[in-house]
Amino acid sequence: MASAAVSHRTAEAPQTADPLVSVEGLSVDFATPRGTIHALRDISLEVPKGKVLGLVGESGCGKSTLAYSMIGLLAENARVAGGAIRMGGQDLAHLKPKAWRDLRGTRIAMIFQDPMTSLNPVTTIGKQMIDIQYREPISRSEKRARAIEFLEQVQLPDAAAKLDVYPHQLSGGMRQRVCIAMALLTRPDLLIADEPTTALDATLELQIVTLLRELQETFGCSVLFVSHHLGTVAELCDEVAVMYAGEVVERGHVREVFHAPRHPYTQALFDCDPARIRQATRQLPTIPGTLPDLRQPPAGCAFRARCSKAFGRCAAEHPPLHAAGPGQVARCHLNDPAEDVA
Ligand SMILES: Nc1ncnc2c1ncn2[C@@H]1O[C@H](COP(=O)(O)OP(=O)(O)OP(=O)(O)O)[C@@H](O)[C@H]1O
């Protein structure tokens, strides 16, 4: 399958010349009464400077766990079992709570699926936007003016008047715009967006995605965009990482991965994507089978039980990330140049 031009390098490409964040072999476990869940297993990827990295995969594959590890918001029962998250000379995977508090709201900010996760329901938008600027050495009226400026940046109509309203007086789409404005007010280098459009209808989703792209270009920050929606990822992202059962199974530039997915799981995700299915059907197709039990991840390829292309080696040997095309890697033996699949 792999062309002669593709090198034998494994687990290395694509490399970003100057990444903002490098995740290196990160493993995260959750302790539960029924055993340890190995939610992230040896994850390596890079968030490029000034670019948008999309993170896709079925529910439960570890997208949020990865996103939360990058902003120090893992649940109490989580433990970093190995690896590092490098950003500007620091290893975020092992920061103390105080160091995290300094980093959040300065270098790293997050927007959530539900805007009410980050908005206080009993405080006006204006007070929340002024309070979040507590580190800025400027007067209250200057902070107020900045808040209005940022609400205008996120295209909220009648921005000044919105300072006096409470979150529940705004629509869902407007609340999400306020959250984006608040995240950007702290001038983060990295903006993490965890399914920020899932609760919105399709028209609003498109508006928010377009806005995020414009703002990312204006502010020049890097974005980690977690999503179920392949179409949205295609619209917004420069690069994409596909996760399955706690591992990255494919990554590369969006154009290449979407044009020619090289992991059977990525191909199956595309086959189930409603936007790609032309004929009218009442039921959306799903990938047959279920995710493996993450308390005992299978040896060999984690996807093999659901993979129509599985063969002997898939049970015996855990596949590394093989170079699979220009700037593209896939964790599948079919991309091993040594594998004769012609
Ligand atoms: N606090 C926790 N305690 C125990 N298990 C957890 C905890 N948080 C997540 N998990 C488990 O870790 C695995 C990865 O979950 P995660 O939420 O990261 O997946 P996801 O891809 O973001 O899913 P979704 O798209 O549904 O948000 C799942 O098996 C999940 O049940």
UniProtKB/TrEMBL annotation:
A Pfam family: oligo_HPY
Record CDD domains: ABC_NikE_OppD_transporters
Gene Ontology CC annotation, any one: plasma membrane
GO biological process: peptide transport; transmembrane transport
SUPFAM superfamilies tied to this protein: P-loop containing nucleoside triphosphate hydrolases (SSF52540)
Taxonomic classification: Bacteria, Pseudomonadati, Pseudomonadota, Alphaproteobacteria, Rhodobacterales
InterPro entries tied to this protein: AAA+_ATPase, ABC_Ni/Peptide_Import, ABC_transporter-like_ATP-bd, ABC_transporter-like_CS, Oligopep_ABC_C, P-loop_NTPase
Keywords per UniProt: ATP-binding, Cell membrane, Membrane, Nucleotide-binding, Transport
Topology class, membrane: Peripheral membrane protein
Subcellular location field: Cell inner membrane
Main location: membrane
Name of the protein: Peptide/nickel transport system ATP-binding protein
